[in-house]
């Protein structure tokens, strides 16, 4: 029997894309209309944001742990989190988790290495881009990386938090993302990690100045592989 995938969700739009990817892409591996059993737990998004806004990453970790415990009780075999930002809290609780976690940045870094990229632009919320979540995993694959400027981080953060997590997309937001990614390309990056699970809703290889590393779908595919092997 395939493994039971647990999703510890944070923001709805990215979690929904991850869930849909698992269900839509599974038949290519499993046949028919089949997909693994999938369960999701989502605390109120504001519970996460209250912790994030005051820098309480241990509090973020406790919310993640609570989701893992609930998913374990209903039969999940492992857990994924389709939210890049809160991965910086995972080290606080991973050793207490009742389930193993797949790390979103590991999935991205492995894909970047496999595709032969060398220098990766990191995009996402300002909390994610300021953190070591991606630098650590990229460095483990001997990959270089570049962060946007402080001003660019703030602009991307506004687009994510004021628009994308609310289900809003605007031409001005897309144009701003294209401009920022284009500048990172000019600085020598050869790929960009869409390091917010909502970014793939508006950015992809067809409209990005750089080849994209879609963290949302890469995590979903890693979960699929784990579940069926």
Name the helicity range: 40-55%
Number of domains: 2
CATH class of the largest domain: Alpha Beta
Q: What is the typical, i.e. mean, pLDDT?
A: 97
What's the arrangement of strands in the largest beta sheet?
Answer: 2-1-3-4
Q: Alpha-carbon distance between the termini? A: 10 Å
Q: Which segments are poorly predicted (pLDDT under 50) over 5 or more consecutive residues?
A: none
Number of helices: 10
Beta-strand residue fraction: 5-15%
Q: Summarize the biggest pleated sheet.
A: 4 strands, parallel
List keywords for this structure.
Rossmann fold, 229 residues, 10 helices, alpha/beta, four-stranded parallel sheet, globular
Give a structural overview.
This protein is 51% helix and 12% strand. It has helices spanning 12-30, 45-53, 57-73, 90-93, 104-114, 126-130, 133-140, 150-163, 171-186, 215-228, and strands at residues 5-8, 38-41, 78-80, 101-102, 119-123, 144-146, 191-194, 212-214. The strands form 2 sheets. Strands 2-1-3-4 form a 4-stranded parallel sheet, sandwiched between helices. The chain has a 4-stranded parallel sheet with strand order 6-5-7-8, with helices on both faces. Helix 4 (90-93) links the parallel strand 3 and strand 4. It is globular, with a radius of gyration of 17 Å. The model has no long low-confidence stretch (mean pLDDT 97).
């Amino acid at each position: 029997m395939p493994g039971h995938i647990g999703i510890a969700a944070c923001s709805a739009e990215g979690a929904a894309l991850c869930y849909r990817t698992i269900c839509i892409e599974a038949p290519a591996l499993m046949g028919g209309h089949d997909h693994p059993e999938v369960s999701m737990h989502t605390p109120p998004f504001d519970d996460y944001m209250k912790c994030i806004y005051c820098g309480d990453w241990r509090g973020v970790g406790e919310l993640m742990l609570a989701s893992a415990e609930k998913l374990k009780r209903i039969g999940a075999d492992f857990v994924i989190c389709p939210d890049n930002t809160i991965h910086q809290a995972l080290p606080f609780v991973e050793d207490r988790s009742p389930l193993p976690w797949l790390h979103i940045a590991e999935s991205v870094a492995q894909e970047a290495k496999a595709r032969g990229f060398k220098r990766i632009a990191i995009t996402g919320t300002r909390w994610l881009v300021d953190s070591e979540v991606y630098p650590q995993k990229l460095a483990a694959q001997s990959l270089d990386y570049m962060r946007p400027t402080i001003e660019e981080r703030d602009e991307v953060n506004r687009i994510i938090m004021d628009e994308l997590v609310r289900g809003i997309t605007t031409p001005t937001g897309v144009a701003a993302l294209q401009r920022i990614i284009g500048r990172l390309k000019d600085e020598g990056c050869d790929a960009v990690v869409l390091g917010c699970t909502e970014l793939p809703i508006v950015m992809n290889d067809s409209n990005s100045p750089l080849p994209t590393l879609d963290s949302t779908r890469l995590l979903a595919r890693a979960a699929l592989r784990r579940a069926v092997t």
